[in-house]
Amino acid sequence: MGINSIEVKKGSEMEDRTRKKVLVLNSDYTPFSVTTSRRGLKLVMMDRAESLKLDQNVFIRTVRKSFNLPVIIRLKRYIPFHFKTTKLNRKNIFRRDGFKCAYCGSKKQLSLDHIKPKSKGGRDTWTNLVTCCFVCNNKKGSKTLNESNLILNVAPKKPSLLFFIKNHNKMLYEHWVSYMSGEA
User: Looking at CB atoms within 10 Å, which of 109, 129, 145, 149 has the fewest?
Assistant: First the structure.
């Protein structure tokens, strides 16, 4: 009986177990993504990945077997990473900036601001868009930073996929830390 044939009822304890997170490493041990325990166990059972670390306290029972759920798995075949780019969108810019204004640090009434205004040739890029509160956005308007006397607290840059795995996972297991030594 495989993981596909396990029935999981909504709201059940089993559903909670299979929603735990698993760090997926590429075959060269670099972080690739984060998935659910159910998907991680499925990849292991299909022999597409190997378990590097199991959760000794959480398991799934089938009619014939018991399986400890994986915490870290490694893909057996290398998947090129070039297609794994971080999308430029409002949500990801807010995440990158920690859901606070890049000028004053406020966490209220947030929107996006073009550092170099669109009216002056500014584009939608990771280095030109920042999270901005309503007050600072009105103060800046369509002016440049020098014209508006505003100062950026941090220089905006394109975040890596590893940055999002490290900083925006609700549950980052202590077991994952040793695999997270890459650039963020």
Answer: 149
Q: What is the pTM of this model?
A: 0.58
109 vs 82, higher pLDDT: 109
Domain 90-148, what architecture?
Answer: Orthogonal Bundle (1.10)
The band of 31, judged by pLDDT with boundaries at 50, 70 and 90, is: confident
Position 148 scores a pLDDT of 92
Domain layout of the chain by residue ranges: 3-83+161-179, 90-148
